[in-house]
């Protein structure tokens, strides 16, 4: 608690508020002392006025007047003459004289502090100006013990009030700091942790939203850093994979081109009628070499941007995929079915999601066509409270064991002869960019099922309703 930003701010606020209260306390206690002494002077003046009204007051009444005024004697100066109005025995000599008529603030504060720190009772003379112009001055002698006791009581009330004000102020500032500063900072830290755990997940990329200028600048700097780092990591990963596959690609490409060269030599050197049968092999060999080179180069230089997420109709995307693949069917043995419910909408980048579903449907179609048996490719979807689920299933022969072991590894996860293995790797990367997963649910002689899961949660990008 004490080593947190809000905790330290709470302590500093309490200290500073208490310091301010101390600065207020000192002049307040001095003001209280002056008011106390003026009150005694006013009481003494009233008592002396009673004596002036009746010169024949008995001694008991004089003692009562002095006791009510809490003084030992009263001297009133009128018309340049000092007159002892009321008097009683003084228990000890006068220790100090205080003239309140022209005392400055510094002197009053000094006298108040001295009185607080002088515990013994003393007899002091206090001089002031009478009220209502009742004379030139009034002078009384009083004991300091009641004054000090009253000052201490007043000071304790001030300190308690100051403590309450300090605590309430500190707590309010503590809450304000947590809302205005600590919570946004923790939000930035959360984005950093999520991004560090999964740099390919676009939800970990921060979206600046802070109202405080300094925090907004930090969020924008983090956004730029995350964007540049994401592109760098993708490029680095692809280049590393590309570098590891160069030797294999070179070997395979050399073998393919060698076969093509031998067939070409046969065509040039022989007029055998079998040349017509060899010509398609030459074309296929060269096509596979070109396709492999193009896929390799495309993967090495591709830089997938973060997905532009918005609410889209899934049935329209899968409909476009099915219509496109139907044009590529080589015969009536394979059927393509779109069973996505009408009205189902999900949050995704429509172009990237089209590419993912296209790769899965195309792989399924090509696998069925290569098996030379009737089959069906079906696209379905459902949703629950947490995710959207898209399923691409076929009734094909299933994936070979080698393909299952390296299914999403570039250049190693190809499921058909002549494939580069990039389609599933790119699809999995695109789905991870949405914060989701692409998994092989099952495969075997009865068919293969791939499942795409896209999360409903949205923490980084604004939802744009399409």
UniProtKB/TrEMBL annotation:
It is a multi-pass membrane protein. The keyword ATP-binding applies. The keyword RNA-binding does not apply. Its EC number is 2.7.13.3. It catalyses: ATP + protein L-histidine = ADP + protein N-phospho-L-histidine. The chain crosses the membrane at residues 6-30, 158-181. It is an enzyme of class 2 (transferase). Its main location: membrane. One of its GO terms (molecular function) is ATP binding. SUPFAM superfamilies: ATPase domain of HSP90 chaperone/DNA topoisomerase II/histidine kinase, Homodimeric domain of signal transducing histidine kinase. Keywords: ATP-binding, Cell membrane, Kinase, Membrane, Nucleotide-binding, Phosphoprotein, Transferase, Transmembrane, Transmembrane helix. Pfam families: HATPase_c (PF02518), HisKA (PF00512). This is histidine kinase.
């Amino acid at each position: 608690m004490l080593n947190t930003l809000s905790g330290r701010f709470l302590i500093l606020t309490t200290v500073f508020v208490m310091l301010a209260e101390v600065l207020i306390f000192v002049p307040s206690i001095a003001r209280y002392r002056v008011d106390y002494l003026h009150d005694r002077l006013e009481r003494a003046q009233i008592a002396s006025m009673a004596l002036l009204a009746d010169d024949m007051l008995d001694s008991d009444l004089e003692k009562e007047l002095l006791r009510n005024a809490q003084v030992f004697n009263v001297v009133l100066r009128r018309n340049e003459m000092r007159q002892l109005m009321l008097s009683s025995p003084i228990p000890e000599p006068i220790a100090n004289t205080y003239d309140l008529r022209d005392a400055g603030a510094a002197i009053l504060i000094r006298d108040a502090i001295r009185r607080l720190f002088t515990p013994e009772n003393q007899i002091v003379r206090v001089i002031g100006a009478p009220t209502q112009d009742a004379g030139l001055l009034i002078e009384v002698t009083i004991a300091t013990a009641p004054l000090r006791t009253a000052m201490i009581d007043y000071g304790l009330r001030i300190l308690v009030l100051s403590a309450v004000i300090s605590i309430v102020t500190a707590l309010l500032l503590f809450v304000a700091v947590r809302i205005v500063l600590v919570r946004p900072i923790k939000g930035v830290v959360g984005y950093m942790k999520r991004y560090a755990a999964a740099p390919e997940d676009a939800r970990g990329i921060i979206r600046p939203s802070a109202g405080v200028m300094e925090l907004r600048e930090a969020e924008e700097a983090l956004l730029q850093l995350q964007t540049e780092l994401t592109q760098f990591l993708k490029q680095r990963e692809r280049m590393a994979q590309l570098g590891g596959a160069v030797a294999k690609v070179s070997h395979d490409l050399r073998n393919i081109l060698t076969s093509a060269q031998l067939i070409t030599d046969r065509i040039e050197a022989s007029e055998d009628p079998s040349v017509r049968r060899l010509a398609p092999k030459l074309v296929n060999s060269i096509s596979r070499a070109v396709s492999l080179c193009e896929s390799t180069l495309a993967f090495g230089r591709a830089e997938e941007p973060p997905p532009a997420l918005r609410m889209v109709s899934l049935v329209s995307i899968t409909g476009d995929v099915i219509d496109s693949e139907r044009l590529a069917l080589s015969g009536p043995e394979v059927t393509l079915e779109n069973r996505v419910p009408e009205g189902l909408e999900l949050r995704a980048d429509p172009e990237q999601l089209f590419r993912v579903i296209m790769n899965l449907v195309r792989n399924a179609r090509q696998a069925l066509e290569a098996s030379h048996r009737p089959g069906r490719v079906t696209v379905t979807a459902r949703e629950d409270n947490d995710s959207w689920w898209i399923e691409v299933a076929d009734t094909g022969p299933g994936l070979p064991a080698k393909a299952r072991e390296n299914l999403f590894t570039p250049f190693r996860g190809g499921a058909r002869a002549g494939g580069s293995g990039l389609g599933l790797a790119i699809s999995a990367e695109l789905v991870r960019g949405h914060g989701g997963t692409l998994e092989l649910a099952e495969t075997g002689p009865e068919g293969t099922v791939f499942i795409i899961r896209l999360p409903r949660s949205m923490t980084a990008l604004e939802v744009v309703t399409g």
